[in-house]
Design goal:
The protein has 467 residues and is an alpha/beta fold. The protein is 30% helix and 21% strand. The strands form five sheets. A 13-stranded parallel sheet has the order 3-4-5-6-8-10-12-14-15-17-19-20-21. A two-stranded antiparallel ribbon has the order 1-2. Strands 7-9 form a two-stranded parallel sheet.
Length: 467
Amino acid sequence: MPSSTSPITGHPVFAAELFQEIIAQYVEILNDERDRQFLRGVPSIRPHLITLSLVCRLFRNLTRPYYFNEIELTHESLVEGNGIVGKLGGLLRREPYIAKGIRNLRCILTSGEDIPSAESLTRTLELPYVRSLTLYSRPRPTLLLSGQASSLPSTVSTVTGLPSVIEKFLFAGSLTKLVLHRCISFPSIVLLSLPLLKFLDLHDTDIISTPEQGGTPAVQLPMPAMKKMAVQRSKMPFSLLTRYPDLEFLEVSIHYTTNMPTHADSTQVQERLFPSLKRLYLSCSGDSRFRLFLDNSPILEGLTLYGVPLDNAPVTTTIELPELKHLDIIWDSGDTLGQSPEEFVSSLRCSSLTTLRMHLNLRYIDLDSNPEEADQIQRTVENVVRRLAELATTEQSRSIRFPDLSEIAFTVTLRQSFGDRKPIHQSFDPKWYHPERFSGVLYRILKMARYDSRLATDFYGHVDIQP
């Protein structure tokens, strides 16, 4: 209840204690992890709370012991002077203690006119204790709708103000989480200057190899803190990947990995390159050097191989992955099917494997463009599918390769014109009826594999037809 009424405005006047209680509730919301997660989806509330903290002295006094630690800056708020950046900069200059409480900073950047000058942005964002930095660069929705997005810079390196800001935070050395999407190319020495970094997420952001300085390569420095690294469509030196002995999760593409040695060169190294890696998502991009990662990850538990080449060279040695429990293999590269893509599966020795998923993607193979070899390609596909099914399901094969396997999924993807071809009946088992289409032949092979498997508790086979 109001304690009195203002003689000037006639509005009720509340006691200061009640106002303090209201502010305290805001503080509690901002410092509760669950409430902060909820506020992420309520854009109309969160900016008001941030603004309140910037303009209300009482709020700042109440939050002095535990100032809320997350700041989000969008292109609307990156306005010099009157925007959140301007207010925050002025506030930090007057009361610098607040900067010590800010831990997470997330910036969504669009084009140059939305961002203050380099001097202003660098001056205002004096946040020495930031642990998590996320920088996104993306065109404004209005530009996307009007088709003008191509006129924007492909990276933020040309956007006014950002390079100096990145340099400020990256060389601070206090970051534990770094997310950069469509940002800037920077030397590997920058990452090596972050000894506390545990999580790295790069998307369309290249890392450039650092040349030797003073006779000592910078990449020789150990970086034990890193646990998780996701590198998507971003160039990354292979030598930098091996600088993190405690790395447990890695997502990377061979196509974007620079200075990658050959498998023969790696066998001469005594120590394993990824001794702590437990989960690997590797885009092979048709490159057979994916074995370089497998042979150097002794405790790998989960593995996804995307883009395994269809025409890979024969495998002459076994691949020992004794701790592997989940394996996904996607053959999805090239329009030529070799004679031995199944030899990779044959070379595996995974004594702890429980889940195996295989996807043989043949949608790029067009028999119409090569009718002379169509029958031979058809026979090769049939033999490869039958061989892969046998390796995964027959008791003899599994006792050698996957003794604990309990879940199998095998999908074959064909172009519709390929799947609709008439089967080569002479090559099909006579105890089954002859399907009218080649896709039916493959389906029968998968069905027979399910019946022939005495140990599999769960088997799923599917033939997917694509136009």
